[in-house]
Amino acid sequence: MLAIRFNMKSKTKIKKQANRKTNSDLIKIIKILNKQKNRELANLLSRPRRKRIEVNLDKLNKEAKDSEILIVPGKVLGMGEIEKKIKVIALSFSEEAKNKLKKAKCEVLYLSDEINKNKEIKGKIVK
User: Fold this and answer.
1) Does residue 1 lie in a domain region?
2) Which of 14, 28, 37, 111 has minimal CB crowding within 10 Å?
3) pLDDT tens digits for 39-93?
């Protein structure tokens, strides 16, 4: 069985990787998270796009408890069904995933909007 380890990067390494990004919103998010010392989330977002996390609704349904806040540092995809009322904060959503979440009366929020509104994000990070 292979174990995936996420090595924590230094603030400087995260900042250098963020500067290579072309998405200005993503750069702002990473810098804010880095300042807040939320380095785990900043680390996951500063990785290359090919290593970005993609999560299906089935996985969210398995990992979540009712009325829990889940943070996805990547894209939420629409495969599967969701049966719990949860709050999902993600970098992006597929149209199908967004529709299914809204149909299940879940709260759908983008990471950029949540950071601009609250400046601090709390919840369970889904990898």
Assistant:
1) no
2) 37
3) 889 889 988 889 889 999 999 999 999 889 999 999 999 999 999 999 999 999 9
Q: Which of 32, 16, 17 is nearest to 120 (CA)?
A: 32
Helices (H) and strands (E) in the chain, counts: 6, 5
Residue 26: CATH number of its domain = 3.100.10.10
Asked if residue 32 lies in contact with residue 11, where contact means CB atoms within 8 angstroms, the answer is: no
Model pLDDT for residues 5-50, shown as the tens digit of each residue? 556 778 788 778 888 878 888 888 888 888 888 888 988 998 888 9
Specify if 6 maps to a domain.
Answer: no
Q: Are 55 and 76 in contact (CB under 8 A)?
A: yes
Q: How many domains does the chain have?
A: 1
Range of the domain at 88: 11-125
What distance in Å separates the CA atoms of residue 89 and residue 72, rounded to the nearest whole number? 6
pTM for the whole structure? 0.85
And the tokens for 90?
A: 């993600």
